[in-house]
Amino acid sequence: MHWVEVDGYPMPVLLAGHPGLELCNTWAGWDAPPEPHREWLRDYQRLAVWARHAGLLDAVVTDRLRAAARDRPDEAVEVLAETRDLRAALYVVLLDPGADAAFRVVARYAERAAATARLRADAAGVARWTLPEDAGLALPLLACARAAADLLGTPDRARVRACPGDDCGWLFLDTRGRRRWCSMAVCGNRAKARAYLTRHR
């Protein structure tokens, strides 16, 4: 099964190994013709819920964003479109390191997130960069952009693979150099079943 229910919405299962890859996996069937049913992020409400599902936002912030989106629907639509734009560019960059135009798109969003971030220290004095709530409805987009930049700046960037399953193309980290499928239980088993039928025809 490729999905789970979160706050009443179907969400893609988390199997990629990094939030940046999970963002790419909110589109189903990258190599297939674009159709509305392939889109998991169909509106801002789903985007906010998915960001929490992926560990990019906490529940309190997510609830506030969803309420704000109902009051500012035009802004919410714009943020959703920008997130999809980031997702498409990131997918291209991860599979083609030489895709300069797509990289510039990812970099633009990542630099926007970096400019918004604030350095905060906890009670023990340990500091970390955080995205402030006053970033508003753009928070899910900025969190995705930070995740994308994080992935592109680590050795894991070279371990990204695309699932060869029919109507899939989901991305995942192949940390041991042996993983072929996004999910053996789904795409892997489908491929095995097709191979079996082919052998016994």
TrEMBL record:
<dbReference type="Pfam" id="PF07336">
    <property type="entry name" value="ABATE"/>
</dbReference>
<dbReference type="InterPro" id="IPR023286">
    <property type="entry name" value="ABATE_dom_sf"/>
</dbReference>
<dbReference type="InterPro" id="IPR021005">
    <property type="entry name" value="Znf_CGNR"/>
</dbReference>
<dbReference type="InterPro" id="IPR010852">
    <property type="entry name" value="ABATE"/>
</dbReference>
<dbReference type="Pfam" id="PF11706">
    <property type="entry name" value="zf-CGNR"/>
</dbReference>
<feature type="domain" description="Zinc finger CGNR">
    <location>
        <begin position="159"/>
        <end position="200"/>
    </location>
</feature>
<protein>
    <recommendedName>
        <fullName>Zinc finger CGNR domain-containing protein</fullName>
    </recommendedName>
</protein>
